[in-house]
Amino acid sequence: MASPAIRIGHGYDLHRLEEPPPAGQGRPFVLGGLAFEHGRGPVGHSDGDALLHAVTDAILGGLGLDDIGQLFPDSDPRWDGADSKIFLEEACRLMRSMGYEIANLDATVILERPKIGPHKTALRTTLAGLLEVEADRVNLKGKTHEKVDAVGEGRAIEVHVVVLLESTSEDSRNR
Ligand code: MG
């Protein structure tokens, strides 16, 4: 059966935010591959980049493949402190090998601090660069959690992503 012309993918991630050692287990705060100055950072086996993890899972999900935790298990010492761009690059490689490209991607980042509003353009441009698409195919929204629950109390970051993949084969485009 021919592969579909378009596929939709959804990704979600959450990381606890803690102070750096010895007070907590927080790593330096990194989001979308960018470093932010903040007193807390994500707890994670890799660098804890919740945005790149959610984008990676959205792409893998759209392709119907194993998720990020299956491809890069947190029991594997190779991924200890790993730059999450590695995970996204692999998802993009798989996407292209299966004949798909990003049509568009929409991300919602939920956290209290640091405020990402002033960094939206940089995040969007950086993410588009990693995905090798024009910036107008990537959108990003920042929200707070209205001081409610762990995210609202600044103890976690949460990211939701939806992505539309389109087939690069002439066949499915002409159907
Ligand atoms: Mg994660």
Helical/strand content category: alpha+beta
Uncertain segments: none
Question: Strand order of the main beta sheet, please?
Answer: 4-1-7-5-6
Note the total helix count: 6
Mean pLDDT: 95
State the distance separating the first and last CA atoms: 13 Å
What composes the largest sheet? 5 strands, mixed
Question: Quick one: how many beta strands?
Answer: 7
Give the topology string: H per helix, E per strand. EEEEHHHEHEHEH
CATH topology: 60s Ribosomal Protein L30, Chain: A
CATH architecture: 2-Layer Sandwich
- Whole-angstrom Rg: 16 Å
Strand composition percent:
25-35%
Bound molecules: magnesium ion
Write out the CATH superfamily name. 2-C-methyl-D-erythritol 2,4-cyclodiphosphate synthase
Shape: globular
Overall number of domains:
1
